[in-house]
Write a structure and sequence with these properties.
Blueprint: H1 2-53, H2 57-75, E1 77-82, E2 93-97, H3 104-111, E3 116-121, H4 130-136, E4 140-142, H5 150-162, E5 166-169, H6 187-195, E6 198-205, H7 207-210, E7 221-227, H8 242-259
């Protein structure tokens, strides 16, 4: 009798295991459809606002107050932000973060309490709606296959921060496939040195689990955003060497990840 019961339970478990992936696939398909519709609708509203006001600040804040929270809720992601209240957001920064997932941008839009611009890869300009929004709101782009494009990008980035904007870059250059934080490329740090602004290290943890880099399979869970200590590039004690600056920022991000937000 016991053997028959065990066999029945084993068959039941196997059936559930078969059904569950199909259920998950269907749910992820719905989430993907929601992501597309929510993004397209939000961008249309943002572009209408831009046309009415002539300023990108409103559309950028819409990303942090409407678009990003909607996608995070749809993904079942809970954002945990630490250290943002210690930052003087009246001053511009080069915000540098590790890169785990495409949902990193949503997380940072929500975590930074002022309008935020990103340095994005050139391929983003070809994405429907997203490329339109990014170009219209003044995002910067880098063509990774064209080294000669870097000087113009650095000049534009320095000018943007000199005008008071917060600019976020992912200096690893691409998303981490295994969660290990890659070496920070020194190029973007040159823009902070030219503008004389502080570099603000930020760590992202949990985004890779919520939305892995290989495909679209959403898993509800927490995403932790931790702000570190701004690193000066001007004045006494400021770091004027871009390689040293990249290494200092990288070390802080690793410390934030290891110590749960304490630097």
């Amino acid at each position: 009798m016991d053997g028959q019961f065990v066999e029945m339970e084993t068959v039941k478990t196997a059936r559930i295991a078969v059904r569950r992936p199909l259920w998950r696939k269907a749910w992820n398909l719905l989430q993907f459809a929601f992501t597309l519709v929510w993004t397209a609708g939000g961008i249309l509203v943002a572009m209408a606002l831009l046309k009415l006001t002539g300023s990108p600040r409103g559309p950028l804040r819409m990303a942090s107050k409407m678009w990003a929270p909607g996608l995070m809720t749809g993904a079942g992601a809970k954002l945990d932000v630490q250290g943002a209240d210690r930052i003087d957001w009246t001053q511009p920064h080069l915000i540098v973060s590790n890169h785990q997932s495409v949902i990193d941008i949503c997380s940072l839009f929500m975590a930074v309490p002022v309008p935020l611009r990103f340095l994005l890869k050139q391929e983003m300009t070809r994405m429907p709606f997203v490329g339109w929004y990014a170009k219209s709101t003044g995002m910067l782009f880098i063509d990774r296959d064209n080294p000669r494009a870097a000087p113009a990008m650095l000049k534009a980035a320095a000018k943007m921060m000199s005008e008071g904007w917060q600019l976020c870059v992912f200096p690893e250059g691409t998303r981490s496939r295994d969660g290990v934080v890659g070496e920070f490329k020194a190029g973007p740090f040159e823009a902070a040195i030219r503008a004389g602004v502080q570099v603000l290290p930020v760590s992202l943890d949990g985004a890779r689990q919520v939305l892995p880099s290989d495909g679209f399979e959403v898993n509800p869970g927490p995403i932790k955003v931790r702000f570190g200590t701004p690193i000066a590039t001007a004045g006494e004690g400021g770091i004027r060497d871009r390689n040293a600056l990249a290494q200092a920022a990288h070390a802080q991000v690793l410390m934030l990840l290891e110590n749960g937000g304490r630097v």
